[in-house]
């Protein structure tokens, strides 16, 4: 009986770890435009975060860094507190660029799109190659991508991660008509898909499934205590 109880406890611990990992895996960096600070009318780099899970994710206290991937020097993500299931949001380096970004990409047809910001020394995205690392408030790395030299020829194309991979080096450039990408309505020199990451991959499993498994294991462990030794 003791062996059965130990096995049940071990299974609970293991599944608890799985639940934690699944919850942490919901957010992806799905698009990056490191050339925008020098080649867009709003003069500010930006990246897109997408919640690929089936439940909302609170990002209160979250931070970002570039390829140095250091929580100690990361900049706070501001202006957005939560990302809904399946939602894509944009983070722009300068809050002063928000209106210009919307005008350049969407013209007068402003979409329902959450825009947040990040500002800090040493977190600018380099056109020669860099990265985006996203941390939660406890310093846990929640999403990360890297990329090489960005597009240097007009029209400028963002890095596309419509496959929603994590800890990956991006090389695919946005192409109009692919994965939701389009030529910016107010600036024909930009191609990307801000706010519309293609949701072509199955969502991360809900943690409820694992919680049910945990409950079942708990019941097994309880029942084992009732058996005569």
| Cross-sheet strand order for the largest sheet | 12-1-2-7-8-5-4-9-10-13
The number of helical runs is 4
Globally, the shape reads: globular
Distance between the termini: 7 Å
Largest pleated sheet: 10 strands, mixed
Helix/sheet category? alpha+beta
Whole-angstrom Rg? 21 Å
- Mean pLDDT across the residues is 84
Extract low-pLDDT stretches: 7-23, 199-224
Order of helices and strands: HEHEEEEEEHEEEEEEEEH
- Please give the share of residues in helix: 10-25%
How much strand content do the residues show? 25-35%
Number of strands: 15
Question: Could you list some keywords that capture this structure?
Answer:
alpha+beta; three-stranded mixed beta sheet; ten-stranded mixed beta sheet; 15 strands; 229 residues; 4 helices
Task: Give an account of the 3D structure.
The chain is an alpha+beta fold and 229 residues long. Helices cover 24% and strands 25% of the residues. The chain has four helices and 15 strands. The strands form three sheets. A ten-stranded mixed β-sheet has the order 12-1-2-7-8-5-4-9-10-13, with no helix packed on it. It has a three-stranded mixed β-sheet with strand order 11-15-14, with no helix packed on it. α1 (2-24) runs antiparallel to α4. The chain is globular.
